[in-house]
Amino acid sequence: MERKTRVRFAPSPTGPLHMGGVRTALYNYLYAKQHGGDFIIRIEDTDSRRFVPGAEKYIIEALDWCGIKADEGIDEEGNVVEKPSPRHPHAPYRQSQRKEIYRKYAEELVGKGAAYYAFDTPEELEEARKDSESAGNTFIYNRETRGKLRNSLTLDKSECDLLLKTRNDWTVRFMMPENAIVEMDDLVRGHMEVNTDTLDDKVLWKRADELPTYHLANIVDDHLMEITEVIRGEEWLPSLPLHYLLYKAFGWEGTMPHFAHLPLLLKPDGKGKLSKRDGDRLGFPVFPLKWTNSEGDVSRGYREDGYFPEAFVNMLAMLGWNPGDDRELFTIDELVDVFSLDRVVKSGARFNPEKAKWYNKEYLRKKSDEELAELLIPVLESHGMQIVDCPVCAITAGAEFTVNGADFKNHIYTREYVTGIIKITRDRAVFVKDFWDIASYLFVSPEEFGEYGIKAGESTAKAENTNDPRRKVYDDSKTAPFPAKDVEKFWKPENYMPVSKCAGFIDGFDGGLMQDFPGEALEDFIRGNGWPMGKVMNCLRMALAGTASGLGIADIITSIGKKEVGRRIDYIYSRLGR
RNA sequence: GGUGGGUUCGUAUAACGGUUAGUACUCAAGAUUUUCAUUCUUGCAAUAUGAGUUCGAUUCUCGUACCCACUACCA
After folding, report:
1. From the CA of A235, how many Å to the C1' of B25?
2. What is the pLDDT of residue A421?
């Protein structure tokens, strides 16, 4: 009988969700949607000691940001479902709330002779491990050692029953069969075999907290929740034989899910899998969202770094999978159509932060000027700018000069002005926040750069953690508005004399509101006078933008308008003299 | 150490057993531009290694090397 596709993502709330975890969730989601099935989220919190407050919420919020929505397990408000309902028939979806279920199944296994009670304390096992190690061996709890340890196999029944009643630190262990070959099939790796003699008797259930370990809980829940495919990280491959054996022991082989083990995400450099430290060290996020741990350490997130969720998801999807052709750009809905497990690669994928940026740039370019303006407005506001909807609104807000929708004195700008700025700068940005670094001088006059803490032509990143966006942070002589390097290079009589003539030319330009100042006219004017084009233009740019490199002169003039052009040129003369 | 998995340009990856081993990112050079960036063009750069099977191997088999995971009363 054909079963409805049902897959699950089963994170453990022991910390923030790593980007590798997001990819696992994504592949599960894509697979489910493609097969018209359900995507279930289940919280695997069977390790009470490693529980981290807030981690569960974080995981759900992170998936939500990525556009990965659960069909089952999480309600509309983003909470883990605790009571069964038609939409969430298998509640609770938090394993710590399903305690009784696992105990029953653990006992069933003991009854069937597939598992046994073990009374060794963690200390005793530690001791045994040490002894073994000093003898040059590795201790494993298996058919060779279980006969010498204290468990329901070696103790007689009455003693065993007494121990079960009086002690609360025993466990249930799986009894690994002897010298049997387990044959397994993996959707990405194909056929595999392993001999049970190399495996150990894993703990399935702990009396101490009356909770199962991962292995038992996982198999029981996947069975009860009618999971058809288990798509998880490669780190689980070694326990696959145990899971196969568990299904067999329960007699559930007929409905055992298919397994797919995904390749790991590796460090951009060096060896090993991607870790939180790599992000700090190499300067990129490893988490989807920002996370602050109990010690107050902050880990950056893709969201806070300015990545679009579509770009993040697209980038993640292509790490370990490809469509089989040269296409690289896919929305999550397009991925649903083209994704397939048999195109998942087997080897670990080394993460490349540069490619992540490239994806963001591509998605930024797909957005309209209006959309980007909308996203940029909060950034501008954080820098002390006020954005209004129309010129009339600007006047109402107290603007004194709205010819181009821009008041450089009171920092009031119309939405249309912002959209115009996007139009001329959009090809230069990777992130929305880049627009400020690229075009801050289209909002703040060079004379005020110092006060605003902007070093011309450089990122404002250094100044991030201060509340007042207008504080002064640069006091040295290289500080904006005019970088020493540019002044030295371009502020020479043969350049600035022509610049003042250009000011006159621009002022006299008969273009009304200067909706579209013709750069060619200015060029002709400069050429006509026999001045050196490059030098004069750079000098002019320094006057207008506070830096000799950046946007096109005509774009700057068109944006700020001729009155502001005049003011800025007057200002540079007053500052640098002649 | 043991067990399992993996190995194509620096990175991500493509290639019914037959291709000049392709594409993207990065990098370099050139063109365009008033600067910078963008854009365009070009370029650099790979089948870990040794056998075997085959007319023919990146592709199949075995060995070697290297990498990774697991080896908890963690997931």
Report:
1. 28
2. 96
